[in-house]
Every structure is written in structure tokens, then in C-alpha cells.
Amino acid sequence: MKKFLILSILLFFVLCLSVLWAKTTNWNEKEPSASALSSKKKTLSRSKLEAATLILHKASNGSVAPNYHYECVIKVKKDSVDVTVCRGYDGEEVYHEGRAISPTEYEQFLNHLAAQNIRTASVKAYTSGGHVSYIKVLKDDEVVFDGSEDYNLTIAKGNLSDAFMEMLSGSMEEAANDPMRLIDPLHNEEE
Length: 191
Prior knowledge:
Structural class: alpha+beta
Radius of gyration: 23 Å
Strand content: 25-35%
Shape: flat
């Protein structure tokens, strides 16, 4: 009877510890920072877009070896669009191209971004495996909206890059869609 009592107490103790450990361990999400919890949710409104002097979209694949890392930045201004692809963590530029855009093209771009209903959200689990896609909207030097598709944005319609890709010419779109072809010569041979 004494062995049964000791075994029962030990089993109860192990069960209590495992329940406590399970409640304090969150396998799926990292804890949001206090500043993230206290910050208000923001919307990329039409008025912010119309006031913008520069709208940036950046995509990168940060969790790879330095020789295979890239960053692709698309910059849209009221009269132009530019694509720049850089290799490695030192930012060696391997591609740059720009073109002028018409007021009609810019208006269509703004309409597409506004229709996506882009908003910041509570910090969500970082599940991208290293790929990061973000947007930054500036009015002169002031950031009026920014967020990461992989971390704190919700997009009601499509992907963050959709509106930006519509602005690009053939070779610019190829570079933005597949920056690895500019980084790794063997990448082209695999296709």
C-alpha cells in the first residue's frame, strides 16, 4: 500500500509539472513585444497612398548562404518605377533598371494597392523560413505606413507584390520574379 501511495504521488507530481510546462510553452508563436501589443492597427488608406512620394516593396531570402542571398527592391514614384537586385549580405548590385510611368499607370497602381485592403495586424508567427516581403510608404522623409507580409500584415486580396508586378516591363518583371537567375549562374541551367 505504501508503494502504491508513493507511486500515486509521484505520478501526480509528474502530471502537474507537464501541465504547467505545456501552458507556459507556446510552440507555434513567439510572444509579441510590449510595443507591438500597444501599437494601434494601421490601414494603408487611399489618402496615405495619394500623399506618398515613394512606395517601396522589398523581398529577400535571408536564410540562405551569403552567396545565394538576394534582396529585390521595387521603388515606385509618381513618375517612375525602378527595380534593383543585390547579391549577398554586402549588397552588391547585380541588376538595376527603371522606366517612366504615366499618371494613368500610377493611378491604376494606387487603385490596386488600395483594393488589397492592406492592414497591420497583431504580430503573427514568423513562418516564412527566411523570405521577407515588406512595404514602406513614405511622404517625403516620413514613413506613413510600413509592414511585413510575413510578420504583421493582413492583405484581403492577393499578395503584396501583385500591384508592384503590374508596373514592371518584361525584363524588370523577370528580375523581380526570379532574382536567383541573376545571383546563381547554375540556377538557369536547372530549368
